Amino acid sequence: MTVAQPEALNFECETGNYHTFCPISCVAWLYQKIEDSFFLVIGTKTCGYFLQNAMGVMIFAEPRYAMAELEEGDISAQLNDYDELKRLCLQIKRDRNPSVIVWIGTCTTEIIKMDLEGLAPKLESEIGIPIVVARANGLDYAFTQGEDTVLAAMAARCPDKAPVVEADKNERNAIQKLLNFGKKKEEVAQEETEYVNHPPLVLFGSLPDPVVTQLTLELKKQGIKVSGWLPAKRFTELPVIEEGYYVAGVNPFLSRTATTLMRRRKCKLIGAPFPIGADGTRAWIEKICSVFGITPKGLEEREAQIWQSLEEYIKLIRGKSVFFMGDNLLEVSLARFLVRCGMIVQEIGIPYMDKRYQAAELALLEKTCQEMGAPIPKIIEKPDNYNQIQRIYELQPDLVITGMAHANPLEARGINTKWSVEFTFAQIHGFTNARDILELVTRPLRRNNNLKDLGWEKLVKEEAKI
Amino acid sequence: MKLAYWMYAGPAHIGTLRVASSFKNVHAIMHAPLGDDYFNVMRSMLERERNFTPVTASIVDRNVLARGSQEKVVDNITRKDKEETPDLIVLTPTCTSSILQEDLHNFVERAKIEAKADVILADVNHYRVNELQAADRTLHQIVQYYIEKARKRGELPQSKTEKPSVNIIGISTLGFHNQHDCTELKRLMADLGIEVNAVIPEGASVHELKNLPRAWFNLVPYRELGLMAANYLEQEFGTPYINITPMGVVETARCIRKIQQVINEQGANVDYEDFINEQTLHVSQAAWFSRSIDCQNLTGKKAVVFGDNTHAAAITKILAREMGIHVVWAGTYCKYDADWFREQVSEYCDEVIITDDHGAIGDAIARVEPSAIFGTQMERHVGKRLNIPCGVIAAPIHVQNFPIGYKPFLGYEGTNQITDLIYNSFTLGMEDHLLEIFGGHDTKEVITKGISAESDLNWTKDGLAELNKIPGFVRGKVKRNTEKFARERGIKDITTEVLYAAKEAVGA
Fold first, then answer.
1. How do residues B267-293 score in pLDDT, each as one tens digit?
2. ipTM metric
3. What's the gap in Å between the CA of A337 and the closest CA on chain B?
4. Running DSSP on this structure, what letter comes out for residue B69?
5. Strands B2-4 and A65-69
6. CATH number given to A166-277+284-295
7. Domain A300-465 class in CATH
8. Nearest CB to B59: which of A16, A50, A66?
9. CB contact under 8 A, A111 and B127
10. pTM of the model
């Protein structure tokens, strides 16, 4: 065997002319996740129009979000920001009575330099509802990074002391005790023994409740207790975060949240690959175990079993090529998983690459490529969609993972596409959901198998270019 | 500040982009932050467009805030000029970029020097006009630009066409049933012996615009888009325009009579009365429908109408005048053009509502409890909540309102389509009502009972709680598959863990 120097990952940066969702879209999933919240997006008609169209039918379900639509008077400061926001927030308090109002700052509030962070504490004490400020704007961030800005702001609101010890708690929390009447003390104590003794671990990243349960159970099998989750189901249930707690991210786009937890809350970050795909989930659990000095039990078999159950999907994609245009920051993790499935990744476009936060994920990608004998893909930060399309024409990938703006035009040119946003909304974390990722990835290929003899691949006329 | 989460008309730049990308070989460059190119997604999804939407963004980011975006915008224009060789590049400000107050005019002048394409700046104020007004202005602006350009070069044609001819103005991308309406109007013109000189903006090349003055008259089918351009052409060339929307039997006849008058004044000698008669009585089924027993049953039923000016006014007239339906109120969200709407519909409904607040409309629907609603997608959802059927007659619309089948709203075929739409809305309502009275023929309950009675399985509390988190429409399937899985393995108690084990094993 030749001892060739393993090729290293190759990073490039293009012009940033690419299509993605505006980060304010995070309200769509966060208002559903945090049940007692209300999201107020302070922006213009453009923001409202985007949300209205991007969220489709959700809009009709009386969502707990609204626009504070800025008018000409707000822009030219003829109206007083504080008074205007107070009026709207009081209206929200009256109609919905939320436990927290999250203000989403937009491009416009940035440009006119509306001091949301300064106004919030004042208004908060006046109306008696916590106000969290997140600047999820298109000047600075892309799509899923919106969640990152919200969670980073929420991290500051997590209580920093565990509730006082049992003894005096008993007196004060009579009601709590009443509610707990079904649960005997021994039962609780017994439950505790199922866990190994390790420092408290808090996970961060918003996931649907079923996935939270799955990942929590997965760690429980290793004797690891999840002390809390940022965000929790309700704002009032935000986890306690004390100095010295361990934290781990479940999504690749949470670098600000990670930084905040480390610097502001003095937590220790477990840098692991993300639990996306069977390989990622195993690596994630292994890394957490290793930090706590636990030898993982039965993980290898569990992973093997998942791979086995995926074989019918993997058959469809093995040896096929895939091109990520890049718009949601899940790209590296998904690419790593697909390489492990036997695909060849031609390009990983990504809006923003935090090499420190994603270090373990990048290392796993590199390792996976070497183990699978696959070429190491280029990682293109801030891609240029026009250039990418030229490269797609050249490379003719078997699958392009892209936004809706390009999907139909590429399909019409005989190139298979999968809409990238679906990966953000589908359940893709943990062992259980590896199948769902492949369900998405193989869908266009299965469609092709159904339609293959019809000769209908290219549905645009070749234009003569002058 | 205004608290809102739904709007009927989009922001101004959407209107500009709709007009620009309707033309052939015109490229729009938005001066906008990342994520504002949502227009491309809408066009690609709703219109199921096969080609890339000719809209790109010149991204406004932090660096732009610090240094200004002149270089970037100029570079992006010249780059697009080389890559796509468009005839025209329209620089489109957005609400964000308009508060930066950069001298976009100057950028355009700079870019013009290098670019082969013509370059213009869309002249719309984002805080004063909405999507529809902006579309109207942009179309006017482009028409004016090319007329003046041709005039300067002495390329304006001197004469009208030999035979009577028309420009159809206002057909655009993402317009409600615009493609089908366009086909129907062309067919109608052919039947009337009128040549179509140009259709703008949809599918037109900017090079054709200099020929607009050759038409004998302009037809503006929609109230919202095209009037400014038609007015301009009348001022410049004295070309008369007709802005009677040929929607419904009576209005279509009125539009055709007006065409007859306009072209006869210019020396044609046509009489369309026989044509109108033949179409009304024998081709369109709408007049016959009005006489039929079906329609008789609708007499005096209550309906409400809400939408843009064109469609809400036309549908109100059709319901009241052609079908004898009682329109309790009719409304529009085109506040800027409210007087026109009032004048059009006041005699056909009890009350006129002018608002762009969807909450107020929802309340007004709940208040009158009509038998059917004719509105936008928002009213359709209000109808769902209140159990009242709704026919969608105007934007904002979803992908199902871009049908593949031929469904014009204009002309004689349009009258047939509208008849179906109205009649089906009402009968569905009737059917629901009858089912309710007679207890329905729903067997859902019985089936579930049958299955659960046979079940020897026990769902634990946490398992059941987890099951209930699964979205309703797949819950039944997940439940069945999990139980099958548990039964096969002799598991008696179904816990959360069993639920997910089943999912892993069978993809339940």
1. 999 999 999 999 999 888 898 988 888
2. 0.88
3. 17
4. S
5. antiparallel
6. 3.40.50.1980
7. alpha beta
8. A16
9. no
10. 0.88
